[in-house]
Amino acid sequence: MTIVRFHEKIKKMERIFRQDITKMDVDAIVNAANTRLLGGGGVDGAIHRAAGPGLLEECRTLNGCPTGSAKATKGYNLPAKYVIHAVGPVWRGGHKNEPELLKGCYITSLQIAKDLQCKTIAFPNISTGIYGYPKRQAAEIAIGAVRQFLENNDLPEKVYFVCFDEENYRIYEQIMRG
Ligand code: AR6
After folding, report:
1. SS3 call for 4
2. pLDDT in tens, 66-108
3. How far apart are CA 95 and CA 27, in angstroms?
4. Helix, coil or strand: residue 110
5. Protein residue with least CA distance to atom 34, ligand 1
6. Which pLDDT band, with edges at 50, 70 and 90, does 178 fall under?
7. Residue 157 Cα, ligand 1 centroid: separation in angstroms?
8. Predicted confidence band at 8 (pLDDT cuts at 50, 70, 90)?
9. What pLDDT digit, counting tens, does each position of 127-138 carry?
10. Is 44 a catalytic residue?
11. Which of 44, 115, 154, 165 is catalytic?
12. Which residue's CA is the nearest one to ligand 1's atom 4?
């Protein structure tokens, strides 16, 4: 396969959505959590509300998660079978290992999804809300990490970037069109 055709193939494995991630009918959705894994605001709050109390109960058994990594639970009342709780970095100016930690969230989540035999996975724009990561930089890391993983692994088969806010949606469209 030529390099161009290979990149076309990877592009077909990614899609952008503009909607509430709790509505996604996929094998796994990713949560933008914090190290305690006990819920919070933003997408984390929305996922816990939609999943119901079983999610928090299972989260309590996980003993938290380090920044840059992720842990999975079941999806409870969500359409998704699993929730992969990833802990993004708080933006502190860019010299505190933020890019590597953010990339780690995506790669670990994809590896967990693969281990769980997930064909489809949906990501929110991790760290770009309350944690203040600059959106364009975060999008470049997210898309780069996903492409790198898809090039080397047969699962997941489809990755969805769920952009809730207009600015993120426009940034993702621009990068992925290019
Ligand atoms: N569906 C998809 N995306 C959403 C939704 C939704 N329902 N709601 C918000 N977003 P944030 P962070 C987008 O703040 O920056 C929590 O308190 C939002 O537009 O949820 O990683 C956790 O417990 C933004 O682009 O997560 C942590 O303490 C993206 O989700 C902390 O916030 C991420 O925004 C994590 O902060």
Report:
1. helix
2. 999 999 999 999 999 999 999 999 999 999 999 999 999 999 9
3. 35
4. helix
5. 129
6. confident
7. 25
8. confident
9. 999 999 999 999
10. yes
11. 44
12. 43
Express each pLDDT in 138-165 by its tens digit.
Answer: 999 999 999 999 999 999 999 999 999 9
DSSP letters along 9-38, please?
HHHHTEEEE-S-GGG--SSEEEEEE-TT-S
Query: How close is the Cα of 177 to the center of ligand 1, in Å?
Result: 24
Residues enclosing ligand 1, CB less than 6 A? 20-22, 32-34, 40-44, 46, 88, 124-131, 162, 164-165, 168
Cβ-proximal residues to 165 (8 Å cutoff; 6+ apart), any chain: 125
**Cα–ligand 1 centroid distance for 6 (angstroms):** 32
Q: Enumerate domains of the chain plus CATH numbers.
A: 3-177 (3.40.220.10)
